[in-house]
Specification:
CATH topology of the largest domain: Four Helix Bundle (Hemerythrin (Met), subunit A)
Helix content: over 70%
Low-confidence stretches: none
Strand content: under 5%
Mean pLDDT: 92
Number of domains: 2
Strand order of the largest sheet: 1-2
Radius of gyration: 18 Å
Distance between the termini: 30 Å
Shape: globular
């Protein structure tokens, strides 16, 4: 990632470290070499410490007084707890999106539906990025910045779990296809159906990961 002028050094360090943890470039259980990362990213100690503190709050890093900073482990208990939280929040977000979507929002959601078929031939990493963009669009349509921030944090933890088992999954195309009916329910303003489909989508994600972990 290249830093832009709109990002502070701390935000840049946070995003870069977060993405490396999510995509396993910084694997679970590994020690964080802050000095090397500061040099590589071109950031000072204060921005790095701010980034580490945020990532500790996000449950992606664990800071020990003697061992240093360690990338958080991945385990089956994390999957259950994250999924429990996401089922409630994703369902509510979909319901709100169905109730609050504007004409412009619906156009964007239709465009995403049209792109889903073509996504089946994308490389796995690109499919995951597209999956994330769908969720983030739903969060935006929900129009609740407080919940959007929390949802994004839990979704990032889910992405990390997905990357952890990605090489053992044949495809994520089925998960992408589930978004078609969810997005259509939001477009149609069917809040009850959208909420139910979002909840089921999180459950299906959990079941796929649980079958491998």
């Amino acid at each position: 990632m290249q830093r832009t002028e709109s990002l502070t050094m701390a935000e840049y360090a946070y995003i870069e470290l977060r993405d490396r943890i999510i995509d396993m470039r910084l694997p679970p259980g590994s020690a964080l070499d802050e000095d090397a990362l500061m040099s590589e990213l071109g950031v000072g100690r204060t921005p790095m410490r701010e980034a580490v503190k945020r990532l500790e709050s996000d449950r992606m890093l664990t800071v020990y007084s003697r061992r240093g900073t360690i990338v958080a482990d991945v385990n089956i208990l994390d999957l259950r707890l994250i999924s429990d939280a996401r089922r409630v929040m994703e369902s509510y977000a979909a319901r709100c999106a169905a109730e609050r979507a504007t004409a412009a929002d619906r156009r964007k959601l239709r465009e995403l539906i049209e792109q889903i078929d073509g996504s089946q031939t994308m490389p796995a990493a690109q499919q995951m990025n597209f999956d994330a963009s769908i969720h983030r669009q739903i969060y935006a349509v929900m129009r609740n910045s407080y919940l959007e921030t929390t949802l994004a944090a839990y979704f990032n933890l889910s992405l990390r779990l997905w990357n952890f088992v990605l090489d053992r999954l044949p495809s994520i195309g089925g998960n992408l296809s589930e978004h078609i009916t969810l997005l259509q329910a939001i477009i149609d303003g069917d809040a009850d159906k959208a909420a139910l489909l979002a909840e089921e989508h999180v459950t299906h994600f959990e079941e796929r990961i649980r079958s491998i972990l």
